[in-house]
Specification:
Elements: E1 12-16, E2 21-27, E3 33-40, H1 42-46, H2 53-75, E4 84-90, H3 94-111, E5 115-119, H4 120-126, E6 142-147, E7 152-159, E8 162-168, H5 174-184, H6 191-199, H7 224-235, H8 244-272, E9 279-282, H9 289-301, E10 306-307, H10 311-314, H11 319-330
Parallel strand pairs: 1-4, 4-5, 6-9, 9-10
Antiparallel strand pairs: 1-2, 2-3, 6-7, 7-8
Helix pairs in contact: 2-3, 4-11, 5-6, 5-7, 5-8, 6-8, 8-9
The structure holds 5'-O-[(R)-(carboxyoxy)(hydroxy)phosphoryl]adenosine and zinc ion.
Residues 19, 148-150, 175, 178-179, 190-193, 196, 283-285, 287-288, 315-316 line the site of 5'-O-[(R)-(carboxyoxy)(hydroxy)phosphoryl]adenosine.
């Protein structure tokens, strides 16, 4: 920021603990990744069919110190050599947020370092600007499609800390719809990857399924009606497990419906932000090949590149948190140690 030289001169430690991944990463001031570690708790939650907040918080507490120290060791640094510590402060599960921010604040206080309270959605939003990715960093403004287990949003990214929500889900997130549909089909949690694999065996046209909000003005999403349609289909089947071909047809039909809706919503979002330099996708659902291909085609039709960071940086990770910390440090946007955790923290308020 003009008149202020707060550009980080030393590496930044990032910490992510808002959901069911404990992650730590160390980035050089220019964004070079010096260390990145992710510990997934999927196995701890799988038998419950979803994330159990209390189990998640305890697992973060058990893992975080060792993980952060391992990341620092990987980078060949001690706390004293850092230029700042960034941690996800929201939105997310309060237990995990308290663990991550408490750790970051304690370490920042002890080492006399700046603390950066990072909005998790902002971290997803800025990942595409990390130098060294395949695609050149997009200039502001760009269109972000955030499609994760907890969020489905179209966002105009106009600058660091300048986000305008163009549309969002009215009910379930896209990943949540994948997970719930997968559960109905008897697939393991998290359902997205298993459902995508099963869909390859099926006929997407075998069943008529709704395309919620398709063609409607704006770029909001709605997925709960689609999930209900599938629940009704499954309930109408003979008792007992679904046959594999039948389950595959339902999976393929569901994925095709979501893909159609996302393609339509992208076109509407681009019409709302014609000056977008690029379309950026983030969140676990961006891993889906059919969806990725449709979004790439939709962006190309509007003459925009689609930037999809590598999968490990699309899903929850700490590299994105450290990078958001660097972007904020450059602008002098340091957080006070009293900065609270915010389980609900809309991106526009970041
Ligand atoms: O971004 P993410 O790792 O975590 C958060 O929710 O923050 O996203 C996880 C979500 C889950 O709902 C998962 O089922 C979904 O992303 N997902 C997929 C695929 N891989 C992960 N959905 C569809 N197709 C996939 N290949
Ligand atoms: Zn996320």
């Amino acid at each position: 920021m003009e008149g202020k030289d707060t550009a980080p001169r030393a590496p930044v430690l990032g910490i992510e603990s808002s959901c069911d991944e404990t992650a730590a990463a160390v980035l050089a001031p220019d964004g070079t990744i010096l260390a990145e570690l992710v510990l997934s708790q999927t196995a701890d939650h799988a038998i419950f069919g979803g994330v159990v907040p209390e189990i998640a918080a305890r697992a973060h507490l058990a893992a975080l110190d060792g993980l952060a120290r391992a990341a620092l060791a990987q980078a060949g640094l001690g706390f004293a050599a850092l230029g700042g510590i960034a941690a996800t402060a929201g939105p997310g599960l309060i237990g995990g947020l308290l663990v991550g921010t408490g750790y970051a604040k304690g370490a920042a206080l002890a080492a006399g370092l700046p603390y950066l309270a990072i909005n998790h959605l902002e971290a997803h939003a800025l990942t595409a600007r990390l130098p060294g990715l395949d695609a050149a960093p997009p200039a502001f403004p760009y269109l972000l499609l955030l499609l994760s287990g907890g969020h489905s949003q179209c966002v105009a990214v106009e600058g660091v800390g300048a986000y305008r929500l163009l549309g969002a889900t009215l009910d379930d997130a896209a990943g949540e719809a994948f997970d719930k549909t997968a559960k109905l089909l008897g697939l393991p949690y998290p359902g997205g990857p298993a459902l995508e694999a099963l869909a390859r065996e099926g006929d997407a046209a075998a069943l008529p399924l709704p395309r919620p909000l398709l063609g409607r003005p704006g770029c909001d999403f709605s997925f709960s009606g689609l999930k209900t349609a599938i629940a009704q289909l499954v309930a109408a089947e003979p008792p007992g497990p679904l046959s594999r071909p039948r389950a595959a047809d339902i999976a393929a039909g569901f994925q095709a419906a979501v893909t159609d809706v996302l393609g339509d919503r992208l076109a509407h979002a681009l019409a709302m932000l014609p000056e977008a330099s690029a379309v950026v996708v983030a969140g676990g659902v961006a891993a889906n090949q059919a969806i990725r291909a449709r979004l790439r085609a939709g962006a190309a039709r509007a003459g925009k590149p689609l930037i999809a960071p590598p999968l490990r940086l699309c899903t929850d990770n700490a590299v994105m948190v450290a990078w958001a910390g660097i972007e904020r440090l450059r602008l002098g946007l340091v957080s006070p140690l009293e900065a609270p955790c915010r389980p609900r923290w809309p991106l526009e308020a970041a």
